[in-house]
Amino acid sequence: MKNNIFKLTALVLFTFVVAVNASLAQAPKRIDFAKEGSNSLVWEQKVEANASKSFVFKATKGQVLTLSFIDDTKKGMMELGKESIEPNADPYQATISVTKDYTFTVKNNTAKKTSFRIAISLEDAKAKKK
């Protein structure tokens, strides 16, 4: 009887730990331009083998988004919604049509941990014309 209670407790605890880890791993990291004090950021992110990381940011209608990443393996991917952004290519640029949170994901499609250098900027359309 004690053995069954122990097994049940262990199973419940294991399930809880897996669920918590899964929910934490899938939560995108928020980019807060106001907190960073700049409308453009460049940083490096390490991504585990065959894994991905997601980031979310708020953009306002009319802003111009520029997004790019450098991947030394040339096997990584970046996605912004349905858009696929090629590594080591010209930056993706678009005018925001709807004010909302946008999520982009970087994916490491290799069997080794790697790092990506990511660049993102959000400029007001008026500032871009100057």
TrEMBL record:
Signal sequence range: 1-22
Gene3D superfamilies membership: 2.60.120.380
Keywords tagged on the record: Signal
Name recorded for this polypeptide: Uncharacterized protein
Domain of life according to the entry: Bacteria
